Amino acid sequence: MHVQGIFLQLVVLGCKSSLAVLLLAAGGAKVADLAGFAATAALFVPGRLPRAPAISAAVIAAGEVVTGAASLSFPAARWLNLVVLAVCCCFLVVWTVGYVRHADRPCRCFGALSRRGFTRAGIGRAAGLTLAAIAATAGVPRVAVQLSVVTRFGLLAGGVLVAVAAFSAAAAAGGHRAKREPGWV
Q1: Where do runs of H (alpha helix) occur along 1-110?
Q2: Domains held by the chain: number
Q3: Residues 113-148: pLDDT tens digits?
Q4: Which of 19, 20, 11 has the alpha carbon at shortest distance from 140?
Q5: How many Cα atoms within 13 Å fall on the side-chain side of residue 109?
Q6: Which domain holds residue 138?
Q7: Separation of alpha carbons 105 and 119, rounded Å
Q8: How far apart are CA 164 and CA 97, in angstroms?
Q9: What is the pTM of this model?
Q10: Is residue 36 in a domain?
Q11: How far apart are the C-alpha atoms of 21 and 127, rounded to whole Å?
């Protein structure tokens, strides 16, 4: 079933593209600060697996970049909407558990760009992302998402630029913070 009306189609495609860009930015920023994000991942990974937080951090960051790029470049692939929804549900679970167990620790959702701790407001933002992901699963007419190979490549190139910009910003913020705050990881 497809949503009818141009306005609803724009809402669905807006949610889909916004989430894709968000994933690209978050993943790119995490890649620049894998050690910092691994420290957050360690809060959720069993302690008896010493390399698991670093591996988890790398897999999550790469997964966000790949999922965001694929979702942005292939808007007609409806199964990707379900992958993005699953990712957003994971965000909601992590924020909720993080708030209950680790409210004083930074989330590092955007690598060195994010210093805020797990909060109720963060749970609200994660819930909002989940609602947007639910909206993005609504179908739109195929003609609304028919893209040429050149257009797909252009969207992919734009997505790569978003991830690289987030990487650069997080790397700069991390380096600046490390100089300002001795012992900062």
Answers
A1: 6-32, 34-41, 52-73, 78-102
A2: 1
A3: 988 899 999 999 999 999 999 999 998 988 888 999
A4: 11
A5: 19
A6: 6-180
A7: 10
A8: 30
A9: 0.90
A10: yes
A11: 18
